[in-house]
Amino acid sequence: MRTALFGGTFNPIHIGHLALAEKVADSFKIDRMLLIPSKIPPHKTGNVIPSDMRFEMVRMCAKLLGERFHVSDFETSNEGVSYTLLTLKHFREKYPEDEIFFACGADIFATIEKWHRYSELFDYVNFIVVRRSMISFGKMLEAVPEWLHDKVITEDQYSGEKSGKIILYEMPPVDVSSTDIRDALEASYRKANLPDVVYEYISENGLYRGDE
Ligand code: ATP
């Protein structure tokens, strides 16, 4: 089986996240993809809404995406800070026979040296790194420790390894971020780059209003 993990703050989940989930799932023939909202993002500042609300929006989107897609409460229901290392270890133990992938954007991967015990992450999963408009793969590779370069391959070089590879994946960029969406909502409360169900949930609950 092929399992993909896709973690994020999802504050809120938007069409860029959904595009990544769908493209990765199709291109890598993923059997199950788990969307994993994080509980306490230590590096995030600003208006981060409660995890149960972010979780609910991700849950609705996973349902829209189809049967292969699920939301996981592994991080939102655990005590303390959500370290990616613990999440990857957990799913490696849960699915010992699987090829497991952790999907993320190149912006996030560029910061990998700062992640908790980052060098161990590659023992558990492969990374699928998706290009984002703000950073090229070249710049991203310059930002990560050099010993990781040996692990880098392209999509067509992947041949069934269960862990340890960093796969660079080009997909048509969707130039959207949660930050831009929060700014647009605060300014005018218009629907910007959000799935309908997410915008409805945000409106009904009065989230991301400028006066909060
Ligand atoms: P923020 O603007 O609040 O920092 P974000 O839009 O980058 O948020 P996150 O929830 O932090 O969203 O991202 C979760 C993951 O999704 C990260 O790996 C990030 O790189 C990736 N991602 C976010 N937006 C896009 C996008 N438009 N295209 C591809 N990947 C994306």
How would you describe what is shown here?
It is a single chain. By secondary structure, the protein is an alpha/beta fold. The protein has one domain (2-175): HUPs (Rossmann fold, 3-Layer(aba) Sandwich). Helices cover 33% and strands 17% of the residues. The mean pLDDT is 94. It has helices spanning 15-27, 51-65, 84-94, 106-109, 137-143, 178-188, 196-205, and strands at 2-8, 32-37, 69-71, 99-105, 126-130, 152-154, 166-169. The structure holds adenosine-5'-triphosphate.
- Please outline the major beta sheet: 7 strands, parallel
Number of strands: 7
Low-confidence stretches: none
CATH level 3 topology: Rossmann fold
Instruction: Report helical residue fraction.
Output: 25-40%
Average of the residue pLDDT scores: 94
Domain module count: 1
What is bound: which ligands? adenosine-5'-triphosphate
Described by the principal axes of the CA atoms, the overall outline is: globular
CATH architecture: 3-Layer(aba) Sandwich
